[in-house]
Design goal:
elongated, about 130 residues, DNA-binding transcription factor activity, Transcriptional regulator, DNA-binding, MerR-type_HTH_dom, Multidrug-efflux Transporter Regulator, Chain: A, Domain 2
Length: about 130
């Protein structure tokens, strides 16, 4: 099938499919005219890629995991390398969540401190003064 059909069947834009190819995640054949030709397996592969991206994995991590990926879920073959990669990504996400939590608490404190100093809570800051740099 050509890229347009794969795009329709997976609901993934052709430029994203070309990106997956550039990242080594898809390997279409080329026709004599230079068109990308995908096998039926490409539908499953794109589904797997999308689900792994939704789980927060990078394309580099997905490329590393692809030999272990089976099924549309996708399921992963039980191999230590896959678990190490997944646990490392989970640890990174946990660290980001913790950092965002600290940032959120600090921002909330700034808001509350500023609101306490306002003589009239209904008064708004001048829009031109907020966020201007000059």
């Amino acid at each position: 099938m050509l890229i347009g059909e794969l795009s329709r069947r997976t609901d993934v834009h052709p430029h994203q499919l070309r990106y997956y190819e550039s990242q080594g995640l898809l390997a279409p054949r080329r026709s004599a005219g230079g068109y990308r030709e995908y096998t039926e397996d490409a539908v499953l592969i794109v589904t797997q890629i999308r689900q792994l991206l939704a789980a927060g994995l990078s394309t580099q991590e997905i490329r590393f995991l692809q030999p272990c990926v089976t099924g549309a879920a996708p399921d992963l073959e039980p191999c230590p390398e896959a678990l190490t990669t997944l646990r490392a990504r989970l640890g990174g996400l946990d660290a980001q969540i913790e950092t965002l939590g600290r940032s959120r608490r600090a921002l909330q404190e700034h808001i509350e401190a500023t609101e306490r100093r306002m003589p009239d809570r209904s008064r708004e800051c001048e829009p031109s003064a907020v966020g201007s740099s000059g």
